[in-house]
Specification:
The chain is an alpha/beta fold and about 400 residues long. It has two domains: about 10-195 and about 370-390, 3-Layer(aba) Sandwich (Rossmann fold), CATH 3.40.50.2000; about 200-370, Rossmann fold. It is about 30% helix and about 15% strand. It has helices at about 50-60, 105, 155-165, 175-180, 200, 210-215, 235-245, 280-285, 305-315, 325-330, 340-355, 355-370, 370-390, and strands at about 40, 65-70, 80-85, 90-95, 115-120, 135-145, 170-175, 190, 220-225, 250, 270-275, 290, 320, 335. The strands form two sheets. An eight-stranded mixed beta sheet has the order 3-4-2-1-5-6-7-8, with helices on both faces. Strands 11-10-9-12-13-14 form a six-stranded parallel beta sheet, with helices on both faces. Strand 12, helix 9 and strand 13 form a beta-alpha-beta unit. Helix 1 (about 50-60) packs across helix 13 (about 370-390) and helix 7 packs across helix 11 (about 340-355). The longest helix has 18 residues, at about 370-390.
């Protein structure tokens, strides 16, 4: 079967309903059954923090007509689900149902299931109840996290993942630790580490404006961009803020799975909330040092933070806790710390010595060998080879 998008003309005849309730920032709710080349099942929302799914699926949509299905999100007072057109080749379904199992009851409104769908792409095993409702040519499990260890994970997750692994044709992983774990359970596992949109984050090296809310903070500014959840080492953040009262610690991103009262509150710790992806280079430009203050716990055991490369592209010195993949891949050019005292020493040394020509050359070498474009091209090649073998 040809995996190149089969319906180039469908976007030209798309029917949309323009109402107050269904108009969105990207497009409009579409009330007509569609044929898709790929259906993506994801536990994350498309319009949340820009992460692995957005980077990969937006590129896949250059070749495949894709329906991206988010986790259930029931909304009181709203009867219908939402189908949003991100682009003619990429639609996002926001299911207004209570359970994942209920998603199938609404799919007939949006998906023409009488035509073959080439690829079923899973980011979470929690969607496996939908697997048997489709006749996918290829099933891909892109494992970006060990979700069974994430705070709030459901108890049947291990059984769900085993079922998905049994039915998946290939498994992609986002970290070496995940690769080593899943390779014991499946014969076709491939390691695709986090990559970077270098051109986007390199804007921080250019003459772009620094947002006023961060420009007003006194130097030195030590900053973090990403989700603020149980993976952040909050005691470490609190202790380093006490040790370095003249340093501004800036946390940019949404707070999830933890409550605000758990966050350390110090005059020099600033929580700026979630920012648009396009704004991130402007904020990172203000950083004197970029940090990855992750705790060493179950939630971080299998991660490979993409922000490491994003900070490199922005040309910032980086201080990180001893995350396994970070230590393995980047300890030669970023500072690995164990304690708040290590952190304080690193701030003084990095702030004084950067930019370091040796480190900058290492950044250039690393970034030269990674891009989301090449990652997706390699994934597509594997899928194509599997299809030809069939």
């Amino acid at each position: 079967m040809n995996l190149i998008a089969k319906e180039k003309s469908t976007s030209k005849i798309m029917e949309a309903i323009f109402t107050k309730n269904n108009k969105t920032e990207q497009g409009f709710e579409i009330r007509k059954q569609r044929s898709y080349d790929m259906i993506v099942f994801c536990h994350l929302c498309w319009d949340f923090v820009h992460q692995r799914p957005q980077y990969i699926i937006s590129r896949m949509a250059k070749q495949f007509k894709i329906l991206f299905i988010e986790k259930p999100y029931p909304l009181e007072g709203q009867r219908d689900s939402q189908l949003i057109e991100v682009s003619p080749m990429l639609h996002v379904l926001k299911p207004n149902v209570h359970r994942t199992e209920d998603i199938y009851t609404i799919l007939s409104q949006y998906v023409n299931n009488s035509t073959p769908i080439s690829i079923g792409w899973f980011y979470s095993p929690s969607f496996i109840s939908l697997l048997n409702h489709f006749d996918f040519t290829t099933v891909v499990y892109d494992c970006m996290d060990e979700l069974s260890l994430v705070k709030g994970a459901s108890s049947p997750f291990i059984d769900q993942e085993q079922y998905l692994l049994t039915n998946a044709d290939m498994v992609f992983t986002g970290s070496k630790a995940l690769y080593e774990s899943k390779a014991l359970l499946h014969k076709n596992v491939y390691y695709f580490p986090s990559s970077v949109e270098e051109i986007h984050f390199a804007k921080a090296l250019q003459a772009i404006a620094v947002p006023e809310e961060i420009a007003s903070f006194p130097a030195c500014i030590v900053g973090y961009c990403g989700i603020i959840d149980e993976r952040i080492d909050l005691p470490l953040l609190d202790e380093i803020a006490v040790l370095e009262p003249d340093v501004s610690f800036v946390m940019i991103g949404p707070i999830t799975k933890i409550s605000e009262h758990e966050l350390p509150k110090r005059p020099n710790i600033h929580y700026l909330g979630i920012k648009n992806y396009n704004e991130l280079p402007n904020y990172i430009k203000a950083f004197d040092i970029a940090m990855i203050p992750f705790a060493l716990n179950d939630a971080t055991k299998y991660i490979s933070p993409s922000k490491t490369l994003e900070y490199m592209a922005a040309g910032k010195p980086i201080v990180s806790t001893a995350i396994k993949d970070v230590v393995h891949d980047y300890s030669h050019c970023i500072t690995i710390i164990q304690t708040a005292q290590d952190f304080a020493k690193a701030i003084k040394e990095d702030f004084a010595d950067f930019p370091d020509p040796v480190t900058q050359r290492e950044y250039t070498s690393i970034l030269k060998n990674t891009s989301w474009d090449s990652t997706v091209a390699a994934m597509q090649s594997l899928i194509k080879s599997k299809t030809l073998d069939d």
